[in-house]
Amino acid sequence: MGLSFNPADYDQELAAKRQRLIDLLVPFNAPEPQVFSSPTEHFRLRAEFRLWYQDGQAHYAMFEPGEKYKAVLIEQLPIASRRINELMGPLLEACKAEPLLGRKLFQIEFLTTLSGEALVTLCYHRPIDEQWDAAAQVLAEQLGIMLIGRSRGRKRVLQRDHVVEELQVADRTWSYQQVEGGFTQPNGHVNQHMLSWALDAVGENTDDLLELYCGNGNFTLPLSTRFRKVMATELSKSSVRSAIANLEMNQVDNVTLIRLASEEVTQALTGVREFRRLQGIDLSSYDFGTVFVDPPRAGLDPATLELVRRYQRILYISCNPETLANNLAELDSTHRITRCALFDQFPYTHHMESGVLLERR
């Protein structure tokens, strides 16, 4: 996204995204997509700023794409959450006033939640130690935030290294541990729409769900209420740790979480290879009727495509509509699209999230 945007253009830009998705899905006779819009301002829960020094004074700065040496100085960022905008000025002024906080500070990262929590990471070109801790603790208490300090090879955590988000999905509130530096959906309002749509799309089921790329359990938690059992897989160790914490925090007991890549899941389920991480798990006890995938931008690899083709229903959330269309071309011979949605996670950019429910022909 460029740093210049106009909320008055939002509806037109969203309409263009909708048409782009429709055009990509024409070959597959997809139904009309449901469109879930974003707030036009204060929608982004994360923000990262470099510090730019002019006349010895630090300023927040961002850079237009491809212009890494041409700083745009910023005092407020309307696309960022209101909490981020409230904190920007007081935080920077406090760092300017206290050398233990401000000396060789080069980057500030904000992570906020719809539930009101804020975690700020201060990044330094110098070592930080217990003296930094004492000054940072005073600042954290003044602003009502959690603070982390980072310098080369060092990480100083005050309070905790994560926020706890609360998302309303259907008639239930779910709590999520979101770790500093880990992946989380940046647009909380649209994330709630995504989760609610996925829950509605799968309906009530008496069989089981296979989930690939489960991350921190963003979708896993609400989807667990619609199936007998869930087997969820994720490769990232930090995401697995958060997913386990989130299952425990929400008292979800019908999910088995396995740290495997999607290719390894394919090998395990097709009997090609055995994995030590699957010891004690009876794969034959699962009756998978639905597979849920939320892959990276590259989409599904050929082996995973062949795996998901085996199931009656495929729920596919995509962050790249072009690779989604490529994958659908492979699945079209066995499955048809019965539901479709556009989620505007990233207003004022060409990026968009989409979702399709495919059912066996």
UniProtKB/TrEMBL annotation:
**Residue positions binding S-adenosyl-L-methionine:** Q185, Y213, N218, E234, D294
EC number(s)? 2.1.1.35
- Taxonomic superkingdom: Bacteria
Known catalytic reactions: uridine(341) in tmRNA + S-adenosyl-L-methionine = 5-methyluridine(341) in tmRNA + S-adenosyl-L-homocysteine + H(+); uridine(54) in tRNA + S-adenosyl-L-methionine = 5-methyluridine(54) in tRNA + S-adenosyl-L-homocysteine + H(+)
Q: Does the keyword Lyase apply?
A: no
Keywords assigned: Methyltransferase, S-adenosyl-L-methionine, Transferase, tRNA processing
Provide GO CC annotations from the record.
cytosol
Q: Its Gene Ontology molecular function terms? A: rRNA binding; tRNA (uracil(54)-C5)-methyltransferase activity, S-adenosyl methionine-dependent; tRNA binding
Give the GO biological process terms: tRNA methylation
Q: What does UniProt list as catalytic?
A: C319, E353
CDD domains named in the record: AdoMet_MTases
Main enzyme class: transferase
One Pfam match, by short name? Answer: tRNA_U5-meth_tr
| Tagged with keyword Methyltransferase | yes
Q: Which family does it belong to?
A: Belongs to the class I-like SAM-binding methyltransferase superfamily. RNA M5U methyltransferase family. TrmA subfamily.
What this chain does, per the record? Dual-specificity methyltransferase that catalyzes the formation of 5-methyluridine at position 54 (m5U54) in all tRNAs, and that of position 341 (m5U341) in tmRNA (transfer-mRNA).
User: What is the protein name for this chain?
Assistant: tRNA/tmRNA (uracil-C(5))-methyltransferase
The organism is Halopseudomonas laoshanensis
Q: Which gene encodes it?
A: trmA
